[in-house]
Every structure is written in structure tokens, then in C-alpha cells.
Amino acid sequence: MKENLEFIKKHFVTDLSAGLVVFLIALPLCLGISLASGAPLFSGIIAGIIGGIVVGISSNSSINVSGPAASVALVIFTAIQVLGSFEAVLVSVIIAGIFQVGLGYLKAGTVAYFFPNAMIKGILASIGLILILKQIPHAFGVDDVFEGVDSFKNNDGTNTFSGLMNIVGHINYGALIITIVSLFIIIGWDRPIMKKFTFFKFFPSALAAVIVSILLNEYFKASFPGLALDTSHLVNLPVADSLGEFFQFFQFPDFSVIGNTEVYTFAISIAFIASLESLLSTEAGDKLDPYKRRTSTNRELKAQGLGNIVAGFIGGLPITAVIVRTSANVNAGGRTKTATITHGIIMFVCVLAIPYVLNLIPLAALSAVLFVVGYKLTSLEIYKNVYKQGKKQFLPFIITILVVMFTDLITGILVGGTVAVFFILRDNYKNAFINEKANAENKNHVLKLSQETTFLNKADILLYLDHVPEKSHLLIDGSDAKFVHHDIFEIIEDFKQTAKFKNIDLEIKNLDRSLTTKFWKKQ
């Protein structure tokens, strides 16, 4: 403990600085993700505060930064439409948190790593595409347009693509100018050549874009009133005159919907996506850690679950560990929990003390931020890399994206996961054994079992044995096998009778019943 305290003291100053940098990045993202979720803007701020303080304290990761994530935004948007209110959705968030805590205690922290990577990448890429599509109206200043849900068909009779045509004739050129300027700033700011300068390296591009957008809109008000954005196109956080009034802005769950099965469906979706992103972000964060410390994935699930329970009770969006913020934390010098907790505290103080400044932020600027976030999730480079990995990776990836785009997120997860698992099972099915035909004239055959031969290989082995010619010699060799399922032994026992009937000379080598338990005893 003494050593830990010394380590904390050693990095205290740089951790405080890193916490400030993470706050500057997190604030516009929290607001932008709230916008994308169709939730109250304050809910993203609450999630950012809880992710920094509650999750920061309860996790054993020294560098992870948690908060609202774009990957869950689509689920929340849909849930609000289906359940009828954000207060009802908060019940799903609480239940999702309970699921996560339970998974942590069941030591399921490593289970997420077994989900096919192709499906995971497809989910994230599809979320990025839809985020971009949903933000296009805001980029043009059409902030009252119906954005639809995560399904292809919208409730107003349009679909994801035809609904975008509603912005024609309603373009706000002031918002469009702000969007373009914000995008230029973010893209130019993050170019490698700019990162050679300390200021551009540590001052976040998203915040720079937000500041410029505020100044630009104020300039429009003074010089070009026709381009100026009114309050309907700006962030609209509640402004409190006192601390007591500030806490009245927090929203609370509507437990009257507890009997609605849809509440649990959305809870499972939130828990699945939030846990998956948190675990993957944790793994990536550990690789970034200069001290190469390992984070307990089971404790991380518990911490994320606790954060979501607290968020659900006081009106926050779902929380996950976010690799973008974690990497910014490490790059800014964050080495202990102090940085993560500091960013949450700074966010709380700012929304309490300077909400007037935050309410000057144009929604168009946040759309520019989300365009970049969405592109990072679905960049062309991701498609190229997956394509190079072959059709077994690319097909589940692209099918997941297409299904999400033309149906909904849940269907995409089910279909994409099924396709990915199909390829895994097919490979396992085909690799059950090595067929060695030693001498075609003498009809000598060798069936060499692989290291692990499971019940999934039954069909392939049965098919092979059915096609062994009459009056031939067959050697079933288990020399390389470390585990053979009981079902495979039963198939071989039955084949002994078939071999006699077909006059097949059957020889069995290095294969006994101990192989059904040998593998598991070693674990």
C-alpha cells in the first residue's frame, strides 16, 4: 500500500493535467452522444461524471476512462421510441448494470473474447454508418427532423435513406457553415504534422471545434443575423440558480414499466454491447499502459455494472470503458486512477458553475464531432483490413453491417453472430481428422484424429466412414489426439460391426477411453 501511495504521489501532477485533457475531449462527446441517443443532453453529462468518479474508483484499471459510448446510442434511441420515455429506459439501464455485476461474480469477464471478431467489427462499423446518417440533418440545421430509430423503416413511412430527403428546402446555411468549419478544424488538427507541436498534441480537436463554433455563431449574430442560430439549434442544458435546483435536473426511473418484457430485452442489449466494448477497451488499454499492468476483467464488469446502476437511478446514459478517452489519458500522461477521477470531478464542477457557456454550443458542431466518431468506427481502412483476412472474416463482417442497416441492430447481432459461428463450426467440422490414403491400389486408408475431436465432428467422421470401400484396410490413429468426445468412441464402436459386414480390415492405434477425460484433467 505504501508503494502504491508513493506511485500515486509521483504521478499526481501529470494525472491532474491528464484529467483536464480527458475532460476537454469527453465533454463534447458526452453531449454529442446524448444527441445521437435522443436522450436529454444532461444524461450524457451525468454518465460522464459517473464514469469518471464511480467507475474510476471501483475499477482496478489505472488508466481506463469510462463514459457514454456511441456504440450504445442506437439502442437507447430505439428504447425511448418503444418504451415511450427516457425514464422508462433508465429501468433497462439499471437492470443491465445488475446483469453486468452478476456476470462479474460469475467470472464471465473473459467470455466476451470468444465472440467472433468479424461480428464485433461489423456491429461497430454499422453503428458508425448509422451515426453518420442520423447526424446529417443536424449538420444542415434541420434539428426537428424525424431521425427514425435503428430500423430501416421509420414510423413516419420513410426509411433511413428517403428520410434524409426531408432536409431539402429546410437547410440552415449558418449551421452548414459551422459544420464544415468544425470538420475542417477536427480533421486538420489531428493530422500527424500538427501533432509535432505541443499545443496541438494536448489540446483536443473536438474542443477547438466547439470553441470556434461558438465564436462563429456570435459573429453571425453581430454581423450576419440571417445566419445566426437561435436556441432551437443550440445545446439546451438546464441552468440552475442554486445547488438544490441543480439536483432537480436529475431524472429518475419509472418502475411502473418493470413488467414490460421489452425493458428486459433492451437491458440485455445494453449489457451485451456495454460489456463487450468495456472488455475490448480494457484489453486495448492494458496494451497502451507503459507499466503493462493487467486489469481484472471480472472486476471491470462489476465496476461497469455498478456505474450503470447508479446512472440508471439518477438519469444517466449507459456507461462503457471508451478506448478513445483511455488512449487520450495515456498520451496526456495519466498513470493512475487520479486522472480518471479528476476528469469526472471537473465535469461536475463545470456543468454546475458554467452551464451558460455550454448552452452556446451549436448542435451542428456536435454533429461534426459525431461524424468523425462515426468514421473512426467505420473507416475505409477497417473494410480493407477485414477484406484482406479472407471471406471467413469478411462475409460475417459485411453481412452484419447490411442486416443492421436494412433491419435493426438486434437482428444484425443475431444474424452476424450466426454467420460467424457457422464458419467457426465448419472449420472445426472439416479439421476433425487427416485422411491419408497410403496406397490406392491396395485400398489402404489412414484416419488420423486431430488434437481435439468433439461431438461437432460427428457428421464429418460418419460421412467419411460410410465411404470407406469394402475389402479395404483402415487405420484409425489417435496418436495426436489429446481429447476425443464420447460420441466419437461410440461411432467407432458401431463401425466395428460395419467393418465386419463390409470386410474392412480395421486397425485402431493409440486410442482409448482415457482421452475423454485426459484433456480436462490437465486444465
From TrEMBL:
It is found in: Membrane. The keyword Transcription does not apply. Signal peptide: none annotated. The keyword Transmembrane applies. It is a multi-pass membrane protein. Keywords: Membrane, Transmembrane, Transmembrane helix. Coiled coil: none annotated. Residues 12-400 form the SLC26A/SulP transporter domain. The chain crosses the membrane at residues 12-35, 41-58, 65-83, 89-106, 118-136, 167-187, 199-220, 263-284, 305-324, 344-373, 394-425. InterPro entries: SLC26A/SulP_dom (IPR011547), SLC26A/SulP_fam (IPR001902). This is SulP family inorganic anion transporter. The lineage of its organism: Bacteria, Pseudomonadati, Bacteroidota, Flavobacteriia, Flavobacteriales.
